[in-house]
Amino acid sequence: MDRSPKHEYYSTKFQIQDETINSTIDSLPLLVDINDNYKTIRELGSGTYGRVLLAYNRDQQQRFALKVLPKITTKFRDFQREYNYSMLLTPHRSIISTFETCYQTHDSFILVQEYAPLGDLFESIPPQKGLPEKHAKIIMKQIASALEFMHDKSLIHRDVKPENVMIFDADFHKVKLIDFGMTRKCGSYVRRLIGSIPYSPPEVCDATTNDILVTSAMDIWAFGVLLFCTLTGNFPWEHAQESDTYYNEFLMWQKRKRRKLPSQWFRFNPRLMRLFKKMLDPLPENRCEIHEICKYYDDRWINENVRRRPSNEDEGVEEDYSSGDSTNGTDLEELTKMLKDYGFDHQSENQLIHHPSIDIPNANNQITSDNLQFVNKHENGSDLLSHHNHYKYPPSSSTTIFYNTTSTTKSLFSN
Ligand SMILES: Nc1ncnc2c1ncn2[C@@H]1O[C@H](COP(=O)(O)OP(=O)(O)OP(=O)(O)O)[C@@H](O)[C@H]1O
Ligand SMILES: [Mg+2]
């Protein structure tokens, strides 16, 4: 099997120096009995369209990931499109390498890809806790670079989610975007899918006609949701529709119809909230572009004074705690800024004291981290988790992975 030279692109600005790798298929691939060349080791995963197998190539004495797409559900035209886009995108270092040789068996088309030994991001996110900011940033940088590479080629991924980010090392220094089955040209029209997933933007959730315009803003939205999931281990909402309480609360805050930030966003610093605002703008034309995300990498994203009790201590009920230490000058400034951003002015004591979920300031009316406990309290006694059990991750013994045939997300439902 041929392996074309792979050029490494990672910076946000890149140039294509060599596109010889851009091979396409025009006719049906080689008809083979896959067992002649490969020994199947195990199934790596499956999705809406196919199964991915870990297989050992006897000639090359190497392991590969084989994406097997059954002919019953995948037309040659669809396979051809996925192959062509996968090959075109292979030069980017944060996009999975697809090899030139592909196959068909009597019932399937097969793509050959490099094997990611550490599974996907979905499996790496601690449930209801999320990954540390440091790791989330490393992942975001790489996937943003991959998406920028795609968007520069007018290609829209359309299925950005943690299950489509593969991990190669424990520190997340090598992660790659996969799955170009939904990828389409920017400006084309696609049919409406039945149902939506937590990563679907409002223009897709609310679509009433069968002609949905493909835009880069779709990927930006999904990437914003992916960032939330990575940092928290929860989804921000189930559907970006007003009927979804969690989405509606965020939307009201976003539209300035509500001053107070919904509680599940409290832990994020104002700069990160500004980024979320731009990525999750309800109007696709107002959403930021992928290259703008890099402006936020140097900011602190998480307010360390707002922590969650680990979920195993409270059996899924979120509670808040803080270190109890008084904040230092820098923190105080930052926290005061944050209070303002959440709609509180620290000059106005009444506003602070009368807020139903804030602790009364100390004798000197100073804002300390104790006082700031309010920022992670739940205003209505409900917590995000209880509404998001469908999407708890990673798989636990009492849940099984269920592939919803009407959507493209891997969801976890109780048996
Ligand atoms: N190269 C790889 N190495 C290891 N595991 C992989 C690889 N490619 C895919 N997988 C696993 O298989 C799963 C399904 O792969 P993929 O997303 O390509 O299939 P799909 O049918 O197009 O999925 P979807 O439902 O997202 O459309 C991934 O979420 C991942 O867990
Ligand atoms: Mg997938």
Layout of helices and strands, plus pairs?
Elements: E1 30-31, H1 34-37, E2 38-46, E3 51-57, E4 62-70, H2 76-89, E5 103-104, E6 108-113, H3 121-124, H4 133-152, E7 155-156, E8 165-167, E9 175-177, E10 184-185, E11 189-190, H5 202-205, E12 212-213, H6 216-232, H7 245-254, H8 270-279, E13 307-308, H9 311-314, E14 320-321, H10 329-341, H11 349-354, H12 384-387, E15 399-403, E16 410-414
Parallel strand pairs: 1-5
Antiparallel strand pairs: 2-3, 3-4, 4-6, 5-6, 7-10, 8-9, 11-12, 13-14, 15-16
Helix pairs in contact: 4-6
Family: Belongs to the protein kinase superfamily.
Biased composition (Acidic residues): 313-322
Organism: Didymodactylos carnosus
Keywords for this structure?
binds adenosine-5'-triphosphate, 415 residues, Transferase(Phosphotransferase), domain 1, disordered C terminus, 3 domains, two-stranded antiparallel sheet, protein serine/threonine kinase activity, binds magnesium ion, Prot_kinase_dom, alpha+beta, kinase, single chain, Phosphorylase Kinase, domain 1, Kinase-like_dom_sf, 27% helix, ATP binding, 12 helices
